[in-house]
Design brief:
- This protein is α/β, with parallel strands linked by helices.
- The protein has a single domain (30-226), classed as von Willebrand factor, type A domain (Rossmann fold).
- Helix content is 52%, strand content 16%.
- The chain has helices at 13-24, 48-65, 90-99, 109-122, 139-152, 165-178, 190-218, 221-229; strands at 33-39, 69-76, 80-83, 127-132, 156-161, 181-185.
- Strand 1, helix 2 (48-65) and strand 2 form a beta-alpha-beta unit.
- The protein is globular.
- The N and C termini lie far apart (40 Å).
Length: 232
């Protein structure tokens, strides 16, 4: 549960560009598997409905690509951790998402990273996306987990709701060690978050070709990402 309730500032253009640069440098996997994990502790309850709506939009876009399997995982309450079956359709994911309610508890980011490692050992995971607002665990075990994901080739895209100073540091390091990317967001950057989540899903699913088609249809952050991919 986040203890810093100061109103966050909107994500800067530079932060968005830096995030997209990291996405662009991440190897894509056609027909891959995307693990989407959420902090569902009580501190996120005020923004849960809005965040769920944005995440649901990403699921719908990703499922329309064909071939991308998504698993939804979340933690809340007293050591409660759940993970859905892998799905290629948005309907079961949306049903799972709307059923989740926030409950007071400590963060379990280490458990998320460990779950990603275990899932990857069963079958390759193309990327891990995590959305949270704070860190209440020792950082070093999280860094070890992130490093293991990096060695396995599972980049972690860390989305931070708000500007908690400790979480900013830890989220950024997890992203770096895993070969992923970090980006803060808030109510003022909802549109950018929607586009960034969708860009990650599109790129994880079909690489450049899928992102080109999405960029022609929607523009925005997808086009910015394409521009950076073109220089690589």
């Amino acid at each position: 549960m986040s203890r810093d309730k100061r109103l966050p500032q909107q994500s800067s253009r530079g932060e968005i560009d830096a995030f997209l640069s990291r996405v662009a440098a991440t190897p894509a996997a056609t027909g891959g598997r995307l693990l989407f994990a959420l902090d569902a502790t009580a501190s996120r309850e005020p923004t849960w409905d809005r965040a769920s709506h944005l995440q649901a939009e990403m699921f719908q876009v990703a499922s329309g690509l064909g071939g991308l399997a998504i698993q939804l995982a979340w933690y809340r309450g007293f050591l409660e951790f759940e993970a859905s079956p892998w799905c290629t359709s948005s309907a079961p994911l949306l049903q799972q998402m709307t059923a989740v309610r926030c409950a007071a508890g400590q963060t379990q980011i280490g458990r998320v990273l460990g779950h990603a490692v275990a899932e990857h050992r069963r079958a390759k995971v193309s990327a891990l996306v995590f959305v949270g607002d704070c860190v209440e665990e020792p950082a070093e075990p999280l860094y070890r987990g992130a490093g293991e994901l990096g060695l396995l080739g599972v980049p972690t895209f860390m989305f931070l709701e708000g500007r908690d100073a400790n979480a900013t540091t830890v989220f950024g390091e997890i992203a770096r060690l895993s070969g992923g990317a970090f980006c803060p967001f808030d109510a003022g950057s909802a549109a950018q978050l929607r586009e960034l989540l969708t860009a990650v899903a599109v790129f994880a699913s079909g690489g450049r070709k899928a992102l080109e088609a999405h960029g022609r249809a929607h523009g925005g952050e997808a086009r910015r990402l394409l521009g950076q991919l073109g220089t690589r």
